[in-house]
Specification:
Length: 204
Amino acid sequence: MVNDVKKIKYAINGGIGFGAKLNAKQLVMISKYMDEEEEIELTTFQQLYIEIPEDKEGDIIEEFQRVGLECYPVGNFVKSLRTCNFCKGEEEEGMPVAKELNQRIAGKAVPFTLKVAYTGCPVGCGEPMLSDIGVMKIGERYNLYVGGKAKGKDAEVGSLLMENLAPEELYNKVEKVIAVYAQMAKRRETFFKFFKRIGKSTIN
Ligand code: SF4
């Protein structure tokens, strides 16, 4: 019999924490919604792609969230923050700031998938300078980079947009950059191309 239940793709992960981890409860929950033959895709952005039946979407998302899984739409949205592993400790590396920033921006609709990376110290394990938007914690303040590109022959390191930001300034600035991109970019224009076209002064 043909199974014609429409499925919808979600990106899920265990949230921002020490390393990109999943616990046993979360793994059991994910497998509950997979057939034996089905596969799950692990992305380079600390997310798993899973397809769930559209008619049970709300209930399944609630179930996922009950075990601490975070669920994000797939497509032209701001992706959840790619973070470093916070090896030096939650407070010292600013995990609460990363969580708050993620909460404010992840899932916002944009012209093309937007990647944001966060890293808790200048070692830069979260590769913030190779993302569309990158945040680097330095001491108690934050540097903001934009326009990085990790892939392709034209890969490039991002530019420093602002430095020495307090957390609230960081949230506002990142939200503003995303709003400018959402309003001014052409349809399906990547942030990298958009930034090249309009320049630092327009976005700042
Ligand atoms: S960026 Fe710094 S705090 Fe984060 S994992 Fe790397 S060394 Fe540790």
